[in-house]
From TrEMBL:
It is a multi-pass membrane protein. It is found in: Membrane. The lineage of its organism: Bacteria, Pseudomonadati, Verrucomicrobiota, Verrucomicrobiia, Verrucomicrobiales. It comes from Luteolibacter arcticus. The chain crosses the membrane at residues 29-50, 95-127, 139-161, 173-195, 470-488, 508-538, 550-569, 589-609. It comes from the Bacteria. Pfam families: CitMHS, TrkA_C. The keyword Mitochondrion does not apply. SUPFAM superfamilies: TrkA C-terminal domain-like (SSF116726). The keyword Aminoacyl-tRNA synthetase does not apply. This is SLC13 family permease. Coiled coil: none annotated.
Length: 611
C-alpha cells in the first residue's frame, strides 16, 4: 500500500467517524473533504470540484424543482390521497403501496427522480397520518434502489454490465432479464422493512426542541369559534335561488359571514366558490356560514321558511377544507388604515377578499358582533379565505403584520388550477427519460422550464425547493472516487479478490464478487463500480470455465444494493434530511438487508442463470 492510498483511506475513515457522530454536519464534512484532498495533492482542484458539473448532480437539483411543481399544483396531494384511500387506516398497507408504486415507476425512469418526486408526497402523507417521516422515507429509498433491479433500463449499472457482455462476445440481457431477481428482492425488502420499521420511528434528532407549529384547530380554540359554524343547503324551491349574496344581506340582518360556497359539479366533487357580492346562488349550493351568536327559535324557523337545510359538519370550523380555505392571524400596526374603523366600514371583505371571524385584544378573544367593534392599534384579527388571498396580506405591510400562518398552508396548492399542466410536464420528462431521446438531465431541465412557462411554480419557489445540503454532500464525496482510483485502491481490492477466491467454488466466488462490489459502492458511484467490476467478474467466470451471465448479473444487483450508508447512493442522501436520519440509521438497517440481498442473489442467480 503506497503512502497516498494510506492517506486517502485515513481521510475516508475520518469522514465516516464524523458522519457517525454527526459532528460537524454531514454537508460540512463533505466540504472539508473537498478542500483537504486537493491540498494533500491527491486530486487536482478541477477533480475536487467536478461534482458541481456532474450531470447527475444537476439532475437531482432539477428533480427537486419538478417535485415542487407537483406540490404547488396539488398533484402531490392527489397522489397522497390515493395512497391514503387505498391503504385505509393501515400503516402496513401504506408502506407496501408506497414501495410498490415507487419501485414500479423507478423501473422505467431514474430512481433518483422517482424518490425526489415522492419525497413531498411522503411528507404530506406522514403529516396527515401523524407518523414520523422516518418511518416512510427509508422504505421509499429502498424501493428506489430496488427499482433498478427490475428492468434493463432501471439503472445505469445494468446497461454497463450488458454492454460488457456484448463487447466480450456474449449475448446481452433482455429488458426483463432482471425482473425475476428484482421482484423477489422487492418482496424481501417490503417484508424486511415491515419488521425493521420499529427502528425507524425516530424521535426528533434535534432533541425534541422543535416547537409544534400552530394549526387551524388551535385558532378555533383560541378565538372561541366552537359552535359558530353551519353548513346550509339551498333547496330547489328556496326563495334565495337566483339572488346574489349582496341582495340577501345575510351579513347585515343576521350578523353572519358566508365563508365559502360549495357548488355541486359533475361526479361527486364540489367546487368551492369565493363569496363575492355579485355571486348568484343556485339550488343545491351549500353555504358555509359563521354566525356571531347561536340562532334562536325565530331564526331556526326562518331557515325552514327559506328552505335552508342544515347539513352535518365534516370538520371543526371547516378545517376539512383546509386545502382550499385557510386562516391567518394579522396584527394592526399603529399607522394601519383600519385603526378607528369597524370591519364593515373598512370594507374588509371587498378590499382583501377575506372574512374577519375573530378579534383578540391582548390575550382575550372579543365575543359578540365583532363587525361593529372599532379596531384599535395592536388588535389581532383572525381572517379566513382562500390561501392566495391570505398570502397577499404579507405584501400589505402598511396595513397588517402577518403574525401566524398555520401548518396547513404547507398542504395548500397555490397553483391548483395548473395541475393538468404539471402532469403534462411530468409526462414529457418521463417519456424522454424512458425512450432515451435526450439525456436524463436535459429531460429534467426541460420539465423545469415547462413548469415555469406554464406558471406551475415561480422562480423563487424553484430555488427554495432545492435541498442544498443533500447536493453538497453528494458533490463533496465524489472526489474520493477519483482519489481511490488514482492511488490504486480499487485495483488493490479487485486483485486481492481474484487471489483469494479465484479457484474456489463458483457460488463462493459469486458471494465474494457481490461483497466486493457492495463495498466499493460505499465510496464510488454505482455506475463507476459496475464499470470497474464487470470486466473482473467476466474474467473470473472465464478463468473458472463457467457462464459469464451469472457473474454479470451479480455485479449489476450488487451495484444497486447501496443500502448501507447515506452516501452509498444519491437516493439515500435525498431522504436523509426529510427522514431526520443519522449515519448510523442506514448502517443499522442497511447492513442486514444487504446480507439478505446477497443471500438471495447467490441462491437465485445460479438457479435462473445456470453456471
Amino acid at each position: 500500500m503506497n503512502p497516498q492510498l494510506a492517506l486517502v483511506l485515513g481521510l475516508l475513515g475520518l469522514c465516516v467517524v464524523m458522519f457517525v457522530t454527526n459532528r460537524p454536519r454531514m454537508d460540512v464534512v463533505a466540504l472539508l473533504a473537498m478542500v483537504v484532498l486537493p491540498l494533500a495533492g491527491i486530486v487536482t482542484v478541477p477533480e475536487a470540484l467536478a461534482g458541481f458539473a456532474d450531470p447527475n448532480v444537476i439532475l437531482i437539483a432539477a428533480l427537486f424543482v419538478v417535485g415542487e411543481g407537483l406540490v404547488r399544483t396539488g398533484v402531490a396531494n392527489q397522489i397522497g390521497d390515493f395512497l391514503l384511500s387505498r391503504s385505509g387506516g393501515s400503516e402496513t398497507r401504506l408502506l407496501v403501496l408506497l414501495m410498490l408504486s415507487a419501485a414500479g415507476l423507478g423501473s422505467v425512469m431514474s430512481s433518483t427522480g422517482v424518490v425526489a418526486i415522492f419525497i413531498p408526497v411522503v411528507l404530506l402523507v406522514a403529516a396527515r397520518r401523524k407518523l414520523s417521516p422516518g418511518r416512510l422515507m427509508m422504505p421509499l429509498a429502498y424501493a428506489g434502489l430496488i427499482s433498478g433491479m427490475l428492468t434493463l433500463v432501471g439503472t445505469a449499472p445494468n446497461l454497463v454490465v450488458d454492454s460488457a457482455l456484448r463487447h466480450a462476445g456474449h449475448k446481452g440481457f433482455g429488458f426483463f432479464s432482471f425482473t425475476p431477481f428484482g421482484v423477489v428482492i422487492l418482496a424481501a425488502g417490503v417484508g424486511y422493512l415491515l419488521l425493521a420499521r420499529r427502528w425507524l420511528n425516530r424521535r426528533d434528532n434535534d432533541g425534541g426542541t422543535e416547537k409544534r407549529r400552530r394549526q387551524m384547530i388551535d385558532f378555533v380554540r383560541d378565538y372561541r369559534l366552537e359552535a359558530r359554524e353551519y353548513r346550509l343547503r339551498i333547496g330547489a324551491d328556496s326563495p334565495l335561488v337566483g339572488k346574489t349574496l349582496e341582495s340577501i344581506g345575510i351579513r347585515r340582518s343576521d350578523a353572519a359571514n358566508v365563508v365559502a360556497i360549495e357548488r355541486p359539479k359533475s361526479g361527486h366533487q364540489n367546487e368551492l366558490l369565493e363569496p363575492r357580492a355579485g355571486l348568484a346562488l343556485q339550488a343545491d349550493d351549500v353555504l358555509l356560514i359563521d354566525v356571531a351568536q347561536p340562532p334562536d327559535e325565530e331564526r331556526l324557523q326562518l331557515l325552514a321558511e327559506m328552505r335552508l337545510e342544515p347539513l352535518p359538519l365534516r370538520g371543526r370550523y371547516f378545517t376539512d377544507r383546509s386545502r382550499d380555505i385557510g386562516m391567518a392571524e394579522v396584527l394592526l400596526p399603529p399607522d394601519s388604515d383600519l385603526v378607528g374603523r369597524t370591519i364593515v366600514e373598512a370594507t374588509f371583505r371587498t378590499r382583501f377578499r377575506l372574512n374577519v371571524i375573530g378579534l383578540r385584544r391582548g390575550r382575550e378573544a372579543v365575543g359578540g358582533l365583532i363587525s361593529e367593534e372599532k379596531l384599535r392599534s395592536g388588535d389581532t384579527l383572525l381572517v379566513i379565505g382562500r390561501w392566495k388571498h391570505i398570502r397577499n396580506l404579507q405584501k400589505r405591510t402598511h396595513d397588517f403584520v402577518v403574525l401566524t400562518l398555520p401548518a396547513e398552508i404547507d398542504e395548500a396548492a397555490p397553483a391548483a388550477s395548473k395541475a393538468p399542466w404539471a402532469l403534462a410536464c411530468l409526462a414529457v420528462m418521463v417519456v424522454l427519460m424512458v425512450t432515451g431521446w435526450v439525456p436524463n438531465v436535459i429531460a429534467a431541465l426541460l420539465a423545469c422550464l415547462l413548469l415555469g412557462a406554464t406558471r406551475c411554480l415561480t422562480l423563487d419557489a424553484a430555488y427554495r425547493s432545492i435541498q442544498w445540503p443533500s447536493l453538497i454532500l453528494i458533490v463533496g464525496m465524489m472526489p474520493f472516487s477519483a482519489a481511490l482510483q488514482k492511488t490504486g485502491g480499487v485495483d488493490l481490492a479487485v486483485h486481492g479478490l481474484l487471489r483469494v477466491f479465484g479457484e474456489s467454488e463458483p457460488r463462493l466466488l459469486l458471494a465474494a464478487v457481490f461483497a466486493l462490489t457492495s463495498l466499493i459502492g460505499l465510496f464510488v458511484s454505482n455506475t463507476a463500480t459496475a464499470v470497474l467490476m464487470a470486466p473482473i467478474a467476466l474474467s473470473a467466470a472465464q478463468a473458472l470455465g463457467v457462464s459469464p451471465h451469472p457473474f454479470a448479473m451479480t455485479v449489476a444487483l450488487a451495484a444497486s444494493a447501496a443500502f448501507m450508508t447515506p452516501v452509498s447512493s444519491p437516493v439515500n442522501t435525498l431522504v436523509m434530511v426529510p427522514g431526520k436520519y443519522r449515519f448510523g440509521d442506514f448502517v443499522r438497517i442497511g447492513v442486514p438487508f444487504t446480507i439478505v440481498v446477497m443471500i438471495i442473489t447467490v441462491l437465485l442467480v445460479p438457479w435462473l442463470l445456470p453456471l
